[in-house]
Every structure is written in structure tokens, then in C-alpha cells.
Design goal:
This protein has one domain. Helices cover 76% and strands 0% of the residues. The chain has six helices and no strands. It has helices at residues 3-18, 22-28, 34-49, 61-81, 86-110, 116-135. Helix 1 (3-18) packs antiparallel against helix 4 (61-81). It is globular and about 45 Å long.
């Protein structure tokens, strides 16, 4: 895996740790059509669901496993495009997602606005970083 592909994997894996659909959205937005629409809608739905009590903390076992899985998908896709080991790319993406999920969770809990307002702030950060990644073709 090239250093550029590894950087993409770690960046999009970390975004996936913050919002599980952020990395897949950045990848999907490279393409036109139905994939972009469906993944974008899923990302929006995740941001809405995050503000409810339905979804547990991102570091609870099931949400964390989902983030790790999505990070692995993102890392594997980037590795595939780079003609590198999908397993190594997937592992790097999953690890980045898990690490970022823990970091973002603890950072958000330290904010005075750790509830819904904190979620909106985090959404804005993730959307901004994902938009940058799309523009830079990360």
C-alpha cells in the first residue's frame, strides 16, 4: 500500500469513527448515480439518528463494531484501488475508525455542550472534513 493510499485510509477511517457513514460517503461521492444518492441519504439518516436515544454510545460494542466494519470497507476499497492488500487496507481502516471513535467520544463528553448541540458541532466538523476529502479526491 502506498503512503498516499495509507493516508487516505487513515483519514477516511478516522472520519468513519466519528460518523460511520462519513468515509463511505466520501468514496461514494467520487461517483455519480444511485450509489452517491443512497450513501448520502444513509449518512444524513445517521446524523439524525445520532441525536436520539435509539443509538447507543459510539464506543458501545455494537456501534463500535459497525464503525470498525465500515472503516474496514473504506480501507479495503482504497487498497483495492491502489492494487494493494485489501486485508491490510481493511485492517488499517478499521483501526483508524475504532481509535477515532474513542477519541471523538471522549472529546465530545468533555464539551459543555455534550448533548444534541455537541452532536451538531461534531456533524459540522465531519461534514466539513468529508467535503474537503471529496474535493481533494481522498
Amino acid at each position: 500500500m502506498t503512503s498516499q493510499a495509507l493516508g487516505k485510509t487513515l483519514a477516511l477511517g478516522a472520519l468513519t469513527g466519528m460518523r460511520s457513514m462519513a468515509g463511505p460517503t466520501a468514496l461514494a461521492f467520487r461517483h455519480a448515480g444511485l450509489l452517491r444518492t443512497v450513501v448520502g441519504a444513509m449518512a444524513a439518516a445517521e446524523m439524525i439518528a445520532d441525536k436520539t436515544s435509539v443509538v447507543g454510545d459510539r464506543i458501545d460494542p455494537i456501534p463500535l463494531a459497525g464503525r470498525a466494519l465500515m472503516g474496514a470497507v473504506v480501507g479495503g476499497a482504497i487498497a483495492y484501488e491502489d492494487q494493494a492488500s485489501i486485508a491490510i487496507g481493511g485492517l488499517a481502516g478499521a483501526l483508524a475508525a475504532v481509535a477515532a471513535a474513542h477519541l471523538a467520544y471522549h472529546a465530545r463528553k468533555r464539551l459543555a455542550a455534550a448533548s444534541v448541540a455537541g452532536g451538531f458541532v461534531e456533524d459540522a466538523i465531519v461534514v466539513g472534513l468529508t467535503s474537503m476529502a471529496v474535493r481533494q479526491r481522498v
